[in-house]
Design goal:
Helix content is about 50%, strand content about 10%. It has about 210 residues and is α/β, with parallel strands linked by helices. α3 packs across α6 and α6 packs across α7.
Length: about 210
């Protein structure tokens, strides 16, 4: 029984890898249909996104029960996105703090949690741009922003790796999931681990 997260910036190859190596277990990256009608800031906005992320986590738990494994195209926790946006100046710090509070409550309620393993693709921005331009099936109107976010995405998962016991690998394996990368996760809903992790982000902010 395991939940696996596949992560990286836009055009890094996450979705292609998931479809090739994890189709029966896949929890796709999805977005609410009315997202563009939501305000950018506020408590309601933080709760709106937390509830959507919790839905994806619930879907992952259901797939795990049915198949023994769920592979998530992007992290259902998704808190990294707000933090990264804040770090590049695209989101007010107060909104990051609201998102953090809403996510923490969801973790306490076991509506969100830590995965068992994370595979994070770090990609040269030029290669990502080539892949972006070569994929006409998707609109990537925030690609340039995602390139700016990548250094902070790496920081996030490096700190998470330390917090949850070396569960992050910096590659998308060519041959699919290696079984030795999946560790039984007793920390799935550990709020103390979550708090220490978030504190480590603050302590190492530059």
């Amino acid at each position: 029984m395991m939940i696996v997260v596949i992560e990286g910036i836009s055009a890094a190859g996450k979705t292609t890898w998931c479809r090739s190596h994890g189709a029966p277990y896949l929890i796709p990256e999805t977005f609410p249909a009315d997202r563009k009608a939501q305000p950018l800031t506020g408590i309601a906005t933080a709760q709106y996104w937390t509830d959507w992320n919790a839905k994806r986590w619930s879907d992952a738990l259901q797939r795990e029960r049915e198949k023994g494994c769920a592979i998530c195209d992007t992290d259902p926790l998704k808190l990294h996105y707000s933090w990264c946006l804040c770090r590049v100046g695209e989101l007010p710090k107060c909104q990051w703090e609201l998102q953090l509070q809403a996510t923490r409550r969801a973790l306490l309620e076991k509506r969100l949690g830590f995965a068992d393993a994370y595979f994070v693709k770090v990609i040269d921005p030029l290669i990502a741009k080539q892949q972006c331009e070569g994929d006409t099936s998707r609109v990537r109107d925030r690609f340039d922003l995602h390139v700016r976010l990548q250094p902070f995405l790496i920081q996030w998962y490096a700190r998470l790796d330390a917090a949850v016991g070396r569960r992050v690998r910096w590659t998308l394996p060519d041959d699919g999931l290696p079984t030795d990368a999946i560790l039984n996760n007793e920390l799935r809903y550990d709020i103390d681990v979550f708090d220490r992790f978030v504190s480590s982000l603050d302590a190492n902010a530059t």
